[in-house]
Automatic annotation (TrEMBL):
<protein>
    <submittedName>
        <fullName>Uncharacterized protein</fullName>
    </submittedName>
</protein>
<keyword id="KW-0813">Transport</keyword>
<dbReference type="Pfam" id="PF03169">
    <property type="entry name" value="OPT"/>
</dbReference>
<feature type="transmembrane region" description="Helical">
    <location>
        <begin position="305"/>
        <end position="326"/>
    </location>
</feature>
<feature type="transmembrane region" description="Helical">
    <location>
        <begin position="538"/>
        <end position="555"/>
    </location>
</feature>
<dbReference type="GO" id="GO:0015031">
    <property type="term" value="P:protein transport"/>
</dbReference>
<feature type="transmembrane region" description="Helical">
    <location>
        <begin position="62"/>
        <end position="84"/>
    </location>
</feature>
<feature type="transmembrane region" description="Helical">
    <location>
        <begin position="249"/>
        <end position="272"/>
    </location>
</feature>
<keyword id="KW-0812">Transmembrane</keyword>
<feature type="transmembrane region" description="Helical">
    <location>
        <begin position="489"/>
        <end position="507"/>
    </location>
</feature>
<dbReference type="GO" id="GO:0035673">
    <property type="term" value="F:oligopeptide transmembrane transporter activity"/>
</dbReference>
<feature type="transmembrane region" description="Helical">
    <location>
        <begin position="157"/>
        <end position="190"/>
    </location>
</feature>
<keyword id="KW-1133">Transmembrane helix</keyword>
<keyword id="KW-0653">Protein transport</keyword>
<dbReference type="InterPro" id="IPR004648">
    <property type="entry name" value="Oligpept_transpt"/>
</dbReference>
<comment type="similarity">
    <text>Belongs to the oligopeptide OPT transporter (TC 2.A.67.1) family.</text>
</comment>
<feature type="transmembrane region" description="Helical">
    <location>
        <begin position="332"/>
        <end position="355"/>
    </location>
</feature>
């Protein structure tokens, strides 16, 4: 339940679940030591409760961590819909009510839980769906709670690594790291230079190479405010006078690759996992279970009507937002239904990809594209459709990921459901309250041209979100990615994404002895640049080097060490980074002290 400061900071800091695990352990043990054990009776239901049921145990620790982490998909630290509030108030300089903002944040976070619960039997119970990120949590919980007197204990090792570290590639399987490296290297060091200096693609030399900003034909910043009318829609005469929107060659190609990545997800799962999905569907109806699932049967299962009820209530609240507060969000009621249908269709294939590769393809581009064609000229309708379509799916996958952790740690399913649901609502409310406070107290927040040098409040994540709302919502893909715009050729990436996994599968069938061919995962390879922008090559190169050292060299030549310490090291480095960020904030940022270093600059090239 951390505030959304990462949306606003120039160097975004992500406080992950691992940080919560570390912080909650001493607090839990302290409370177990000092709280009274007195039992209190509840008159109506004739039951008892106590503030101190006994020693702080690992299952309590798991539930606390999941409760605090439930606010954002995969521990992102911020409810995604906060960015909608940010761009309305800080970029478009318009108004949105707090109630509408709260409903938008909560419903987009909870909607996907409804259908995710029903899919547990397909992506949580099978042993083949191992969810690598959950193993990091399991290793850390074991290090903190199990006694280990032989050699260096995992707990001691964790503390040493945490202090020394004062997003880690150690979690990702090596075959996925190779796919990411190939995709990243080909794009950044082959495709991009060729497109820019060799072909001058899309007049690339007129614009910065590595930029997510929008430009006119002269290479000057595009005046977005000048093409928005009083109804918060596109002003066509003003748009025609200013001219077409232009993108940097880097930004435009990342969109094309994004088109291919999301379509390749469906294609890859169909050809490589189709038989397994069909077999699991059959097994789920026949009651085929593994040992972990049989152990979990000791707990009361969650009845499906809980999920149906949650889904129904969330849909009704979302529909009320679309009908009665449409002026704030622009999206019609049918847009909500369509977005939910897209999220539902993609949840299972994306869950399979995430459960086996630790990479999660997003629906942000495809949802923007669809709504941009259906309802052009309405930027907020577009980002709301994207959020309901993309984040509902992402939250569903995160929900399933947490359930797999509960599966490993033998947590009662009903306790998991209650903790995740309540935690999400509380976290979303806290996120919005803090965002509202920052937007009203930080002068010129997100306005980098008005902020002082080295200001931490430049909002790089929200800048990308805002530019996307202009491209897909205000101007619309028809005026950018069709013959009316400059980037119609990027639509061919959809076809490439659909056919790519089929070609890999055919090669695998033709050369079955080549073991590396089925490890070629195009959704992961193509999705390598999904974080760019705002991520830079520096972020990728460091991640790839660490991943190669530990998940290839150490795994191959020091496997015993890897099995014992790898995931614990990952957890320690992650936690150390988060605590370092908190320390820097209280020691430097609060006193107005900023540090300039070459790694903080987004661009070092004057071209």
């Amino acid at each position: 339940m951390f505030p959304p400061s990462k949306n606003y900071r120039s160097e975004p800091l992500q406080v992950t679940m691992i940080s919560i695990q570390v912080a909650s352990l001493p607090v839990g043990k302290f409370m177990a030591r000092v709280l009274p054990t007195t039992k209190f009776k509840i008159p109506v239901v004739n039951k008892e409760f106590t503030l101190n049921p006994g020693p702080f145990n690992v299952k309590e620790h798991v539930l606390i961590s999941i409760f605090a982490n439930a606010g954002a998909a995969f521990g992102g630290g911020t409810a995604y819909a906060i960015s909608i509030v940010d761009i309305i108030r800080a970029f478009y300089h318009r108004k949105i009510g707090f109630l509408a903002s709260w409903i938008l944040v909560i419903t987009t976070q909870v909607l996907g839980y409804g259908w995710a619960g029903i899919m547990r039997r397909f992506v949580v119970e099978p042993a083949e769906m191992w969810w690598p990120s959950s193993l990091v949590q399991v290793s850390l919980f074991r290090a903190m709670h199990e006694k280990d007197n032989s050699r260096m204990s995992r707990g001691k090792f964790f503390l040493i690594a945490l202090i020394c570290s004062f997003s880690c590639a150690l979690v990702t399987p090596f075959f996925a790291i190779v796919n990411i490296f190939v995709g990243f290297a080909l794009f950044l060091y082959v495709v991009l230079p060729t497109a820019c200096w060799g072909l001058d693609l899309y007049q690339a030399r007129n614009f910065p190479i590595f930029s997510s900003h929008l430009f006119n034909h002269k290479g000057e910043p595009y005046n977005v405010s000048g093409i928005v009318n009083q109804n918060f829609e596109i002003d066509m005469p003003a748009y025609e006078q200013q001219g077409l929107v232009n993108l940097s060659v880097f930004f435009s190609l990342t969109y094309g690759i994004g088109f291919a990545a999301i379509i390749s997800t469906l294609s890859h799962v169909a050809v490589f996992n189709g038989k397994e999905i069909h077999a699991q569907l059959k097994a789920s109806f026949k009651g085929k279970e593994d040992i972990h699932t049989r152990l979990m049967k000791k707990y009361k299962s969650i009845p499906n009507w809980w999920f149906y009820l949650l889904l129904g209530l969330t849909l009704l609240l979302s529909l009320a937002l679309c009908v009665f507060m449409k002026r704030d969000i622009q999206m019609p009621w049918w847009g909500l239904i369509f977005a939910a249908a897209i999220a539902l269709a993609f949840t299972l294939p994306v869950s399979i990809i995430t459960a086996t590769t630790n990479q999660s393809p997003g629906l942000n581009i495809i949802t923007e594209y669809i709504m941009g064609y259906i309802l052009p000229g309405k930027p907020i309708a577009n980002v709301c459709f994207k959020t309901y379509g993309y984040i509902s799916m992402a939250q569903a996958v995160s929900f399933l990921n947490d359930f797999k952790l509960g599966h490993y740690m033998k947590i009662p399913p009903r306790s998991m459901f209650v903790v995740q649901s309540i935690g999400t609502v509380i976290a979303g409310t806290v996120n919005l309250a803090v965002a509202w406070w920052l937007l009203t107290t930080v002068e010129n927040v997100c306005q980098d041209h008005l902020l002082p040098p080295n200001s931490p409040w430049t909002c790089p994540c929200d800048r990308v979100f805002f530019d996307a709302s202009v491209i897909w919502g205000l101007v619309g893909p028809k005026r950018i990615f069709s013959p009316l715009g400059n980037y119609s050729a990027l639509n061919w990436f959809f076809l490439g994404g659909a056919l790519g996994p089929v070609v890999v599968w055919l090669f695998h069938k033709a050369f079955p002895n080549q073991k590396w061919i089925p490890l070629t995962n195009l959704p992961v390879l193509l999705g390598a640049t999904a974080a760019m922008p705002p991520a830079t090559s520096l972020n990728f190169n460091c991640w790839l080097i660490i991943g190669f050292i530990f998940n290839y060299y150490v795994f191959k030549y020091r496997k015993g060490w890897w099995q014992r310490y790898n995931y614990v090291l990952s957890a320690a480095l992650d936690a150390g980074l988060a605590f370092m960020g908190v320390l820097l904030y209280f020691t430097l940022t609060m006193h107005g002290i900023s540090i300039s270093r070459w790694g903080s600059d987004g661009e070092h090239c004057d071209l």
